Every structure is written in C-alpha cells, then in structure tokens.
C-alpha cells in the first residue's frame, strides 16, 4: 500500500491511485463519513442484527462499510458544497449512499458468484462459511447467497432511512427524493442490462457503454452529485453543469475500472488478476477488443469467451490478445476525452473555488492511470 | 372457484374462504387498490421496464400485482379508517404495500426455489423461461434468479415511492416512517430466521411461532394496521388495541397458512398438495407434530425430514403421521385462542362501527377453516 500525504491511497479509488492530487481533504471527509456510518449502525442496525439468528451478519455489514472508498458519499457531499456550507447533516446524508453501495455490491457479488472483494471473502461467502462452520444442514452456498441478498435488502432500506433521518431539512429532502428514486431505479435496471450483456457473447461497445452510463456512471458520480446539489438548493445552471461533469467522469471511471478488471494487479484491485476475464464479463475493454480485432484475433477471442474453464495461461493469452488489438489505447483515449468534457462542463456555471477544486481532483483521481 | 356474494373467494385469503362474512366491501376496496396499483405502474414502472433489456419484466410485475389478495393493503386501509374517513390518498398509501409484498414474494420464491405461485410460474421461473426462449447463453436458472431478485429490489423501492407520493400529508407520513422502517427491517430479519429454521431439522414450536410473529404476522396484519392508524392520527389507546389484535390475527393467519401448506388442495392454495412438506419447511405444523409425537412417530418424522427425494406416497404418509400426532387439533386450538384474544383486544378502545366490523370480518376471514 502506497501512502500519499499520509493517506493510504489504495483505499481511495477503483484505480487505487491519486498520486498527483492533494487528497487530505478527502481523507478527512472519509473519516467523517465512516464515523457517521458507525453511529447509524450502532443506533439502527445493531439491534436488528445482534443476537439475531445469523450472528455473523453484523460483522459482515461493518466489514463491508468500514473499508469502502466512499466515492459516492464524497460526490454527494461535493455536490452539496456546490450550493451550501458543510454541515454534519450533509455528512450523514452523504454517508447514507454507502449503505446503498453495500446493497449493490452484495447483490452484484451473488449474481457474479464472486468469491473475493477487497481482498476478503464476499458477503455470500462469509455467510456460507458461517453456515458450514456451524454445521447447519442444507447447502452452504445457497444459504450464503440468500443471506447476502437479505442483508443487501436491509442496506437498501437503511440507506433511505439514514438519508431521511440525516437532519437535512424536510423541504430539501422533498426536492431530492425524485432524483433519489431515479438513481435507485436506474441502478437495478442497469443491472438487468448487465445480466443480458453477460449472456450475449460480445455486445457492441456502445451497448456496454450505455449500461456503464446507466448503472455505474450515473450511480457513482452523476446522481450523487445531483442529489447533493439538489439538497443544497443549487440552481438549474449548476445542476446542468454537474450533470455533464458527472456523466463524463462516471463513464471514464467505469472504463478505468474495466481496464483494471483485465490488467490490474491483485494488490491494486483486491481481486485475482484478470478477474473480469475469468468471469467472462462483457466489459468495455472486452467489447472494444472484439470490435477492433482482425478475423484471426476474433476467432481466438470468441473461443476464449465461450470455451470451458480458463487456466492462468488462458487469461494471460487473452490479456495479450486484447493488448494486440489496440483496445487499451482506444479506451484510454475515450477516458481522456471524457475528462476534458467533464472539466469543460464545469466552466458553464459558477462554483466556489473549494468545490471546483474538489471536482477537478475527484475527476482525475477516479480515472487516472495506475502508475 | 366458489363465489360468495358475487365475490370470487379464492382470490381473497390464503385460506381461500370467507364464506360466512360479507366481503362485498373488501371486493370494492380491492378493486380500488388494484386500480391505484395500475395507475402507479403506468406512471412510474412501465417506463423503467418497457423497452428495457428484459422485456418480460413488466408482464411479470403486472401479473404478480394483479391477482394478489390485497390483505396488507386492506389492513392498512382498515387501520386508517380507525382514525379517519376514507380518501383516495389513503387507498394509494394502502396499495403501496402490495409492492412491498411483491418484493417479499419474489425473493422468498427464489430462496425456496418454488416453481409455482398462484397456479403460475414464479417470477424467477418466468425469467428463466424467457432466457431459454430467447436462446441466451449461460444458465437460465441463474439468470432467472438474478432477474427476480432485481425486480424485487425495484418493488421495494417503488413501495416506498408510492407511499411517499400517495398524497397523504407530510406530517402524517413523518409519523408513520419509523413504523414503516421497523416493518421492512423485521421482514428481512424474519426471513434470516426462516433460513436458519429451514436448516435445523426440527425447531421448537416456540421458535417457529417467533419467526411467524416477526415475519408473516407482524408484516401481514399488525404493522399494516398500525401504519394506517398512525397515518390517520389514531391515539395511543387505539394503537395499542390494534397491536394486540394484529399480533394475534397475524399469528393465527400464519398457522392457518401452515395447515394449508400441509393439507390444502392445489385448487385452494395454487400450489401442489403438501408443498411445504415437499420443501421440508419447518412450519408450525411440522414443529408441533414433532413435539407431540411418540418415539416411533418421531423416528418416522425424522426420516421424512432428512431423507432423499419425497414421492407423492411419502407426502401422503407424512400427512397421515402429522394427523395421528394430534398436531392439527393443537394448531386449530391455538388459532381459535388467538381469534378470541384479537376480538378482546378490540374491546379495549373505541372504534367506529364500520371499522370494528371490518376488523372482525377480516380476523375471521384470514383464519377460518377451509370447508
């Protein structure tokens, strides 16, 4: 783990980096977000789970919430700062998104059958291990998946409860609920699209980017920003500038994540190398490589995408094939272009200097190449 | 399908009966609830789903919402009527619980691997069939389960959105949210307990009833009533009377449902005969039979609970064994006692005649023996 300005960067972004940027403010913000989460877990979740029938549930929840990157809460808070001064209520409102993210992660991991997340067993695996260790009858795998889906449901409920009880005033919340509902709906519908993409062998890059926009992009950057800005009473011009910025950064972030899913090291991603390939996920990188490939390369890519179990050598071969097609350069260029759009979009409205700096820093940190 | 007072009774309760009671009011109420649901689906859900990647999702949703018994919305509305006159906003608030129920049903069916619900394929089966019919790659079963979980998530979001947008005034909603959150949390935590009960061979009747109280009972009767009454501004004395009534009726309802899960006919339940036995669900009836059994009967019950695939003859044998232990009479007595408690509880507060009649009718209709 590298440390920049005393800040453990590998906990920060999907890319694990943020080297050129001063992220002390983010580190402080993240501490406040995590403190708000702990307070809410103690007050609202612990009673429901502790002493319950599945006593490991509280540990799984706390583990998942404790080491997150807090990207979504950061964007909500930065959105808020575009229209108002910082408050504890805004921190709690921002922190509520981490419950929504915990919901999404746990269900995603079940659907993808992912064994690891951030270097630890995923929730469904942790529950399956608990089931096995307690010698209960029935399938541990099945139990683990069901328990993870239920804990995810609870997180979806708690996310909304924490926002409602954040202390942000009622009129502000009323302004934000429609966007909040839109975000939650998009998230689930985007996941539908992901399921279908995963079942088609090679979707087009456009189709993949469309899912990326609706699922990860909007949900990670744009909607959190908009919700924060709406809560703070930003005007239409500011909202529109943030929407443009958010869409662009969200897509770029997803593409960076897709590159890491193919080429990232376990130290950076917390997952096995080439994890997205092993899972045969039809990500932007996979789609781009197929689109750019010549006939010979296409046949090989097709065989890898549809064949049986992949050995480490197959993964390496696949990584090399993707690199040969020029897909990496293409995706890097798309990322770069979006970063420019994002910063241009910010220039279309007035923001105070601190908020503007935070937005620029976050854009770079979320999308930057791993050194 | 029998018809009583022009009302198709088999659509009414889990028990499929309501013969002695005038249910015309319920039939009219249910029509209004279903109309409100259709309006919300048209306005809020159709856009999100139609033209989406899984075009069968809207049909699955409408199918699931269209033929429900509307028990929970009825109890919410009756709770409201304990404190205020009927309004369209109250109907919409009540109807929102049908989305919450759709969420619970879809996820339950995935976790139980149930193939049928109300005589039709369950949501995950419908999605699996769609996947297969469209020739998509990957496991249809897995796809079906993931898609059903996602549609359930959407229903959980829409439930809350429909309540918030119902038109019931903000102060009333603010009074009700804490109970609403409690209900949603109990529902998921109760399901956790169910998972663990399913993995233990024979839990005690007390353990089963505890789950029944938290999961089905509270969620079907007590919390909907309390939420309706809280929205309508009922006083503490009324709320306490409704809580007593709701707990008792909820438990009795669950026990009736458990009897039907063992002895009900497919025409009544919409599921195969002895469905709960085939699934080896540790229901109140199964737990009671084990508690009452002599040593010989216990050995046989144990063999049926833990053995391999059950043939129809095994199911019949199991049904007979349960009957021999006297478990049916015991559960009937417990149901009867709870019905008495429920009506006694209503006498501890003042309710207007119409609301009182509706509560008495619903108590009987939810728990009555199938003729």
From TrEMBL, chains A, B:
Keywords recorded for this protein, A-Z: Magnesium, Metal-binding, Transferase
InterPro entries named in the record: Isoprenoid_synthase_dom_sf (IPR008949), Polyprenyl_synt (IPR000092), Polyprenyl_synt_CS (IPR033749)
Protein's name in the database: Geranylgeranyl pyrophosphate synthase
Molecular function as annotated in GO: metal ion binding; prenyltransferase activity
Biological processes annotated in GO: isoprenoid biosynthetic process
Entry keyword annotation includes Magnesium: yes
PROSITE patterns cross-referenced by the UniProt entry: POLYPRENYL_SYNTHASE_1, POLYPRENYL_SYNTHASE_2
Pfam families assigned to the protein according to its UniProt record, in alphabetical order: polyprenyl_synt
Pathway: Isoprenoid biosynthesis
Family named by the database record: Belongs to the FPP/GGPP synthase family.
Cofactors: Mg(2+)
Coiled-coil segments on the chain, per record: none
